[in-house]
Amino acid sequence: MSEHAIARFSVVVCVYTEDRWEDILAAVSSVGAQSLPALETLLVVDHNAALLERLTREYKETDGVRVLANAGPRGLSAGRNTGIAAARGGIIAFLDDDAVAERDWLRYFASGYADPRVMAVGGRTMPIWASGRRPAWFPEEFDWVVGCTYRGLPPGRVQVRNVLGGNASFRRTAFDAAGGFATGIGRDGDKRPLGCEETELCIRLTRARPDAILLIDDRAVIHHRVPEAREHFAYFRTRAYAEGLSKALVARSVGADKGLESERRYTTRVLPAGVARGLRDAVLARPGGAGRAGAIVAGVLTAAGGYALGSIRARRGGATFSVVEIEGAPPTATDDEEAAA
After folding, report:
1. Looking at the DSSP assignment, which residues form a beta bridge with residue 224?
2. What residues have CB less than 8 Å from 110, skipping those under 6 apart?
3. Per-residue pLDDT reduced to its tens digit, 142-168
């Protein structure tokens, strides 16, 4: 990679609760330690005045860190849109507030943008279990439940339908072409464990820019904290159900063919293989085998139930979301200047 052609990154970290104070500081510190320095880190606070004031005091003398209030409705999507509008870099990366990035995270992202057709690059998210290790019953195929890369995604640097929002980057021009993240579909703190806003955005982006390429590079690694409450089956079930609801909204917006094309492969190939492995481990008396097989079946059925209810609600007009255009200052460099050679 030529140093004269290094991409300029704005890193957006959306935050909402003081309960994650130490995690937030660790996330910002990991951005500051990147081998490819970020132009800036934007901390977007989601309608929490106390946290906004505390972070403003914490970083008031720190160069390259800005603290902003979410300018839109409550929720992760509007927070991200606030960060996008304020960003000065030509490439915008997103990092979860309870995650830390490895040192070469941004450098691996940058290498993907050597091709001007690349509009987004995502990475690999590894879980840090509060208990110290993965629960024996928890299948790797469902690591998306806790915001992590799941078994079944292709390895290496590969083209994908969509990146995963907690560890992703986009050209600023992608939002000019497609608009921002849809509000009304993503997370709202801990109150609504929905998702799929990045899926909907990526599909919308490739429709607006048919030549666009979206990549995942599994060398761009972050480590994501999984709290103890999310290691239990009750959360697993709730999150799977919410995913079904979210997928119904996406399918209603972009059509079932595009909205569910990756999910069809996942449910017809990846999950049956996971059930078979679990049953094999059970026969061999390995810990958790039967539990993993059962969790996969339960997760599929629960997500299907959420999808069915979400489809009914969407048809009746009871569940909607909206897309906003991103307004803000243009980036400080052109795409050509930012592409990593």
Report:
1. 99, 127
2. 1, 6, 7, 9, 36, 91, 340
3. 999 999 999 998 899 999 999 988 899
pLDDT, one tens digit per residue, over 77-115 is: 999 999 999 999 999 999 999 999 999 999 999 999 999
Burial 197-224 (b: 16+ CB within 10 A, else e): bbbbbbbbbbeebeebbbbbbbebbbbb
Q: Which residues contact 273 (CB under 8 A, 6 or more apart)?
A: none
Q: C-alpha distances in angstroms, 79 versus 69, 73, 287, 327?
A: 8, 8, 41, 14
- The larger pLDDT score, comparing residue 165 to residue 42, is at 42
Q: Is 118 helix (H, G, I), strand (E, B) or coil?
A: strand
User: Residue 163 in contact with residue 140, Cβ under 8 Å?
Assistant: no
Average pLDDT of the chain to the nearest whole number: 88
Q: Which helix (H) or strand (E) holds 84?
A: helix 76-86
Torsion of CA 329, 222, 74, 16, to 10 degrees: -110
Residue 325: band (very low, low, confident or very high) from pLDDT cuts 50, 70, 90: confident
Cα separations (Å) of 167 from 82, 291, 330? 18, 29, 23
Question: Comparing C-alpha atoms, which of 116, 113, 109 is closest to residue 93?
Answer: 109
Structure token digits, residue 206: 């490739």
Alpha-carbon distance 99 to 96, whole Å? 5
Distance of CA 69 to the CA centre of its chain: 20
Distance of alpha carbon 125 from alpha carbon 103, whole angstroms: 14
Task: Map residue 169 onto helix, strand or coil.
Answer: strand
CA–chain centroid gap for 71, Å, is: 20
Residue 324 pLDDT > 60 = yes
Strand, coil or helix: what is 234? helix
Q: What single letter denotes the amino acid at residue 65?
A: V
Q: What does the block give as tokens for 135? A: 């629960």
